[in-house]
Design goal:
Number of helices: 0
Radius of gyration: 13 Å
Largest sheet: 7 strands, mixed
Strand content: over 45%
Order of helices and strands: EEEEEEEEEEE
Helix content: under 10%
Distance between the termini: 40 Å
């Protein structure tokens, strides 16, 4: 059973920063894609950023220039550095993963999910 465990959420003011972490030890030896996916109240889940096993990254337009997705050298932990936070970034942030060579834009196709961590940005 693959388990993903997020940490690092919290409450910040507009313009602040947070760093989310996701412990994901089960993917280091395989082809995979990992992502941060968020869900705001009354909105659909949105893929914010993703990284594949080759290290290529991609960001939603809402995250470009402000968020950075990365992994540690051992590829056991996924990070999301979030800077210049806005109230519209308020959401539950999930770490998600899928094995194989694809990185689905459709969030329903991701196989593994963490429990989520709340990020709240106040003005």
């Amino acid at each position: 059973q693959v388990q993903l465990a997020e940490s690092g959420g919290g409450s910040v003011q507009v313009g602040g920063s947070l760093r989310l972490s996701c412990l994901a030890p089960g993917f280091r030896d395989s082809s995979y894609c990992m992502a941060w996916i968020r869900q705001a109240p009354d909105k659909e889940r949105e893929r914010v950023a993703r990284i594949d096993s080759a290290g290529y990254t991609m960001y939603a337009d809402s995250a470009k220039g402000r968020f950075t997705i990365s992994q540690n050298k051992e590829k056991t932990t996924l990070y999301l550095q979030m800077d210049s936070l806005k109230p519209e970034d308020t959401a539950v942030y999930y770490c998600a993963a899928v094995r194989g060579l694809g990185c689905p834009k459709d969030v329903t196709l991701w196989d593994y999910w963490g429990q989520g961590t709340q990020v709240s940005v106040s003005s």
